[in-house]
Amino acid sequence: MMSRVAPALLSVALLLGLSHCGEEPVDFQDAGGQSCPKVYQVFGTDTAGAAFNLVFLPDGFMEEELDSYRCAVQTLVDGMMDSGIYKDLACHINAYRIDLAADAGEGEVPPAKGCEVNCKPVKAREYPGGNCPGGNPLGTLVSPSGASGCSTASLNVRLCSSPKRCDLVWLDAEGQRSAKCLADCAPAHDAVIIVANSGSRGGGAMAENDPPLAVVTLFQIDDPSAIELLAHETAHALFGLLDEYECYYDGQSYTGGLNAATAEEKKKRSAFIWARECGESCPVRCNDPSEMCPDGGVSGDGLRCCNEEPTDLGDGSLGLIEGAFYHRCGYYRAQNNCRMRTLSKEFCRACQMVVEALKKELSLELCASLPTRRHP
Ligand SMILES: [Zn+2]
Fold it and tell me: How far is the CA of 175 from the centre of ligand 1 (A)?
């Protein structure tokens, strides 16, 4: 669940994404003169030019496993849109799915099927005990016979970007280019989400990418945590929300989002996004800098902890709670729990307010009902 983000750039990118697209047919095979795999709209009814557009890509699914991927995307998207910060925005979100099989052999990519019934959990490959395979362990996407262009893309999602743990996944440079190439086949894209067929549970996202990217491994589609993971990673890619936990495992430490306050903002008591809901009266809870991160993780250093008298802060209280953005000290989250900190929790007030501000900036109405669109 790594993330690096530039909130200002993100807004610009979203606005550009929202403005350049017309009403194109959803199922097509040519885009800008290049060969493209078919694109299926699996959620949403808004025109591409007026919506947030998610594009789902598979990595590591063999042909015979593709229906599991299709089912997973539908199950995950429906679940995500019906919850948390996505629900009020769901009528402004489109989701597209591209199906490409990973296979060493030749052959046609099979036609996409729906998954209205009998969705089965994906039988994901296991890499137990930190036994991380090299290269692209998930397989390589193959092109349909005779096709060219984006259909030949390989995403190269890799496990194990960290030497310490085996559950981080990311794309190499070629994979990122491929993801963009494939995403360009969709009517529009504001974020690309890659569903990796791996039994190693994990995910990652980066809003700075062009397009913003998220990766989720597919562990079990009937487990609510799969939807929680998707909601978390998509929040990175689509809204620029940063992780609110204090330790990191991938050798880098990122800072600079809207869903936590800096020490400077805490001092001013007006500069953080949830200040208008507690401001001067925001209770403060300082952290203990000497605590260790679990599982060999580390916490960003170089920032001073606040070292103030402890305040009694209930679990749901709004306040300035030290510890966020991979730092024990110097960054303050709004509430004790948040999906950007713990997957099973709801999004905190600060994260909700970031999305509300974006909706306001884009003049988006609240959604009264949940749209769906599924292709047979
Ligand atoms: Zn939050």
Answer: 30
Residue 273 is predicted with a pLDDT of: 95
Residues of the domain holding 275: 261-347
| Alpha carbon of 364 to ligand 1 centroid (Å) | 21
pTM: 0.78
* 308 and 198 both lie in a single domain: no
Q: What is the mean pLDDT of the chain?
A: 72
pLDDT, residue 129, reads: 41
Q: Does residue 217 fall inside a structural domain?
A: yes
Structure-token pair, residue 73: 């995307």
Please state whether 279 falls in left (phi above 0), alpha (psi between -120 and 50) or beta.
Answer: left
- Cα(170) to centroid(ligand 1), Å: 23
26 C-alpha to ligand 1 centroid (Å): 34
CATH code of the domain in which 93 resides: 3.40.390
More confident residue, 200 or 32: 200
- From the CA of 242, how far away is ligand 1's center (Å)? 8
Cα of 161 vs centre of ligand 1, distance in Å, is 25
Q: For residue 358, tell me if it sits in a domain.
A: no
Q: Do 274 and 193 belong together in one domain?
A: no
The total number of structural domains that make up the chain: 2
The pLDDT value given to residue 228: 93
Q: Coil, helix or strand for 223? A: coil
Q: String of b and e for 113-141 (b: at least 16 CB within 10 Å)?
A: eebeeebebbebbebeeeebeeebbbbbb
Query: Is 143 domain-assigned?
Result: yes
Span from the CA of 227 to the centroid of ligand 1 (angstroms)? 17
User: Three-state DSSP class for 70?
Assistant: helix
Q: Decide if pLDDT at 183 tops 90.
A: no
CA of 339 to the centre of ligand 1 (A): 6
Interval between CA 340 and ligand 1 midpoint (Å): 5
* Measured distance CA(142)–CA(338) in Å, rounded: 39
Torsion of CA 56, 201, 71, 25, to 10 degrees: 0
Together in a domain, 51 and 178: yes
